[in-house]
# Entry
Amino acid sequence: MHILHEQIGAPQINVKAESKTSAVLTMTPLPSGYGLTLGNALRRVLLSSLPGTAITAVKIEGVSHEYSTVAGLKDSVLDIILNLRGLKLKKHSKGVEVVEVPFTKSGKITAKNLKVSSDIEILDPSQLITTCDGADSKKKMYLRIEKGVGYRLVTNEDNSNEEDPEFMLVDANFSPVTHAKYSVSPARVGGLTNLDQLTVEVQTNGAIEAENALKLAAGMLQSYFELFNQEEAYSDEEFTTSFDQIKRQKESQEAAALANAEAAFTPIDILGLSQRTLNALVNGGITSIEQLTATPMSQLGQLRGFGQKAKTELEQVLAERGYTLQPSKQNTKE
# Structure
């Protein structure tokens, strides 16, 4: 971590989950340039490396290629495939599953018509696949559903290696993240005004919660960077730090401040003042010698029960012990 964090403190991370599918991450303060570095890395992993579910192949009885039409269906095969690519699904296991979609005489076929197993969740049952208008109800459509990562582009080699030639292979986008955007805005800590604030907006299709997507992406980046430190990690102690080091430094400063506060408190009881004078000081909120010596006599004279006798006694006791009162404003002017 940048050595500057010893001065500005560790970054504060706030994740606001607007819904299960939408979240906004804010991270600040960061050294100048780190907002761009971290934001770009997170965005790339979010869009390309999180596991998701997609349809990878389609088979329609009596259809040999995607440029065909099917009697009784209002959509072309190409339009049907485009609709299928937009289905929001969640598959729990890694294996391949083939699901069946029956045709009807008339009416819409939506995602809820998919005959899936318990391993697959249909996240949006209302998504349209096609519309039937006099279709043959004996015909069926079969979908190959897989869980994967990234974007899979179908090649000629894939088509030639396909065991079932009736299946039409489909380019698949497995990413559950539908939107990932980051922005960097200025931040400041004290007199430092050239710091960064990183904001990352994430939306998913529901296969993974947006907040978990951010955590998974950050964990994946961390796992790669840890490869550099598996044997002998290199660090420059003068220009790098860590969260643990910042935490220990903060705890040490707090402990030192508490110790100084305790050491700087000397109760006025040890002065041996009369009870009347002591009560006047304590009732006025003065309980230590440090407070007493920092208070001018003109202010002490305003305390209830603190008269000329108490003033004389206090001056005598303080003089015997080598203490002096804070000079009053009037005396200072003179």
Q: What stands out?
A: DSSP finds eleven helices and 14 strands in the chain. The mean pLDDT is 87.
